[in-house]
Design brief:
Structural class of chain A: alpha/beta
Strand content of chain A: 15-25%
Oligomer: homodimer
Strand order of the largest sheet of chain A: 5-4-3-6-7-8
Number of helices of chain A: 17
Number of strands of chain A: 19
Shape of chain A: elongated
CATH superfamily of the largest domain in chain A: Succinyl-CoA synthetase domains
Helix content of chain A: 25-40%
CATH class of the largest domain in chain A: Alpha Beta
Largest interface: A-B, 89 and 90 residues
CATH architecture of the largest domain in chain A: 3-Layer(aba) Sandwich
CATH topology of the largest domain in chain A: Rossmann fold
Number of domains of chain A: 2
Distance between the termini of chain A: 36 Å
């Protein structure tokens, strides 16, 4: 069942994942109030079975769908979520093989992650029992979140499918990313938590997402890679056309040790990894937040070059600081060409404003129609790749001299949409600390219109050169 | 009226500021719906007069407090906010001198900030007319926010006085900082927006705050310093015992030009400034957000050394990433001494946990009493300077297996208070993207108990070595 092609690529075939129609939770725990069973039951769009040798009743779950063994289930079972104690996993695996289950998640931990010889041996034995017939996510993993079919290991996971794939060893990282996606406005095609990666590993899952028609952007959190997999990784990266963004865990001395305890990964030297990512045009970031924000930027505007930016602020001082940060990260805030500056000057009529780049609107911001005209002029200029706009929340909540707030908000929305019209990134900062409740609906609309909204310039400015470099390298 | 001491320090005496009892708004603008008059009227605890040569009635403002000239006001006027057109400013200044006004804010712009010879000359003439009798904040400034007496140029400014002073040229930067302080939980003693700094400049105001008994921490946003003031700055820094945190605007090539347009400042070479700040143990940061967050950390715990940190997470992967970030910024996450680790091990009973540093609680986090015991053990360890705790919002909103949510929340609060009990910084991350409405009240309480709460590790981890270095240098 491993997949081979002309280059002798050693990756597993996972194309069946897009056809999963039925599932079982093996080992629903009464002590945990049937946590994983209930979560899957609430969201999965196909058939869910509960497998427990002793439970004959589970409150709120159909009695006729509870079986003592997966072998007793009359229909097919494509996927199983296994949460039995470690010593029972081998037996359960035997039955899954017999039943023809295609994919299992093994949530159970204390395999190679325990750091003991016993744990390692158990993991090897598990692999042997699976006979390459049943593919495994885990052990010590949360498996697969697949919103299109409602496959979700936790409650309140988002239900709208998108085109961002995510691969992580850590289930906790997945939880944070999945819940965060709702607020951020990104949507996942599939999320994999592969834990110890005994069977399916980073390389297999990356190969799957690269070839998955439901996935356009790929995010990864990896702590390490198994020995002997690097050639396969290189082969699939060589043929990849999708943007891949990676957060590498275990880069520092203590981080390497912690990663070893966490998922038994050998995370290796940070410089080797950095060079590797650079060579294969993989975008590397430093935090989970940066991983998600990079995805958001690309989801809103595609990949882009943002080497030459315009800055627009209401506070001249804040504009100066933005320029400093932007140039610190190697991007430019170039002066506008004279013709552009002259056009802008015609629209500026209040004292305290500045028509060059960075643009300082001062109180003229509240003459919002002129703001829209000026942003249009700026984004029409061929020498400008994009615009960063500072919009503190209190100027929206308590705008002076505005009679008709709803027209004011609508015009701001039109301003913010100009990035999409000019096909250039327009990025908004509304400081987290200035987001009053009264502008919640406005900010929500900004998000829904696919305008990226940040709360701190340092949250996204370091990401722009990464995206720009990716754009330049991938355009070659 | 300039202040001299043994070292021939050339700074102006501003001690009268703490005794301001009455004020006037000169030039309340009907077109702007009397914006600055109304704002001051709403909040100032003393007497407010309106000065306008033609207005005889201002809706909602006492008719008997409107005068054509400040000279007509019967009582004393300590402070005046001037917002008349540029050509009237000289006349108004003459009258303020006659009246014995001690301090004025000149909001009017188009002086040296206009970049013209005419503007520069007007500013010089203004200074001459003030005769060192009236001290000036501005022109092109918003002046003084002084919550203790309700002196506030904008509506909805916070009303609780604190002990953080802030000096900025930019009024917009002040607005963002002041509104942000409410959400962040820091409180200001005084905020100065000094605009072009024609009279009172950064050095004068810094000297005042260093000697102000109402101020313990000093924040600054500066774009430049006037020629000939550097020796005075050095003299006052040499005698300073308060933590000073600076955001320097105009560090990049374009930023320098923008600062010149903004407040006619010559901002100079970034390396010279960096060296200077380092030499005089001034903490330098890169963004307004970092300026405020540094103040928050110091306001919560005083200055501290955080070279050796413990990390506690619910997701092992997130813990690994935290360690990488912490060590990237030159701090350590050292292994716990064996005795401490043994003590922790006695309290850990669930699989998937890790008792070393970084601590991985996994699902045992919901056995919250054990978390409290373990934090107590960790902070009792002499080799640990502080703790960073990751607390994603969804684990608080949808905690599994928790019957009594209010007891659960209370115990978490007790956990978070252990930093104060052990007099070591305990810092919480609850990702912005995971802050559901349902935990708003809980997060508010965390803030009110002076526990610093961040939404992104990169928001504060780069600040910890800065505070630690300040601590070490100032302890010498």
């Amino acid at each position: 069942m491993t997949h081979s092609n002309s280059s002798n690529l050693n990756v597993k075939d996972l194309s069946f994942i897009n056809d999963i129609k039925s599932m079982a939770v093996i080992g629903p725990s009464e002590k945990r109030n049937f946590f994983f069973l209930r979560n899957h039951q609430d969201s999965f769009k196909g058939k869910v079975y509960a497998i427990h040798p002793r439970s004959e009743e589970i409150p709120g779950f159909p009695k006729e769908d509870i079986y003592a063994s997966i072998l007793d289930v009359p229909g097919e079972v494509d996927f199983a979520f296994i949460a039995v104690p470690p010593k029972l996993v081998l037996h359960v695996m035997n039955e899954c093989v017999k039943k023809g289950v295609k994919l299992v998640t093994i949530f159970t931990s204390e395999f190679s992650d325990a750091g003991t010889e016993e744990g390692k041996a158990l993991e090897q034995e598990l692999l042997k029992r699976a006979q390459n017939e049943v593919r495994i996510l885990g052990p010590n993993g949360l498996g697969l979140f697949y919103p299109k079919i409602g496959l979700a290991w936790r409650q309140h996971f988002p239900t709208t499918p998108g085109s961002i794939g995510f691969i992580a060893q850590s289930g906790g990282i997945c939880n944070i990313a999945i819940y965060s996606s709702i607020e951020l406005g990104i949507e996942f095609s599939k999320v994999f938590s592969f834990g110890n990666g005994a069977d399916l590993d980073f390389v297999d899952l990356l190969y799957f997402l690269i070839n998955d028609s439901e996935t356009d952007i790929i995010l990864c959190y990896i702590e390490g890679i198994k020995q002997g997999r690097i050639n396969d990784l290189i082969a699939i990266l060589n043929n990849n056309k999708k943007p891949i963004i990676v957060l590498k865990g275990g880069k520092s001395e203590t981080g390497i040790k912690a990663a070893k305890t966490h998922t038994a990964s050998v995370s290796g030297d940070r410089v080797i990894w950095q060079t590797f990512f650079k060579q294969y045009n993989v975008i590397e970031v430093d935090s989970l937040e940066q991983l998600l924000h990079t995805a958001r930027l690309i989801a809103c505007y595609g990949i882009f070059d943002a080497k030459n930016l315009a800055v627009l602020s209401i506070s001249g001082g804040y504009g100066v600081v933005l320029v400093d940060i932007i140039e610190k990260y190697g991007l430019k805030v170039p002066p506008f060409p004279l013709t552009t500056q002259n056009e802008i000057n015609k629209k500026l009529f209040m004292p305290g404003t500045s028509s060059n780049n960075p643009l300082d609107f001062a109180a003229q911001f509240f003459a919002i129609d002129s703001v829209k005209e000026i942003i249009d002029i700026v984004l029409s200029d061929k020498s400008i790749d994009g615009l960063i706009l500072d919009l503190p929340g209190f100027y929206l909540s308590f705008p002076p001299r505005i009679q008709d707030l709803s027209t004011f908000y609508n015009t701001i929305s039109e301003c913010l949409n100009l990035g999409h019209i000019h096909k250039k990134p327009l990025i908004v900062i509304t400081q987290y600390l200035t987001r009053l409740n009264s502008i919640h609906d406005f900010l929500l609309k900004v998000k829904q219109r696919n305008v990226p909204l940040f709360g701190d310039p340092l949250e996204f400015i370091p990401l722009l050169p990464k995206i720009s470099n990716y754009f330049i390298k991938s355009s070659k």
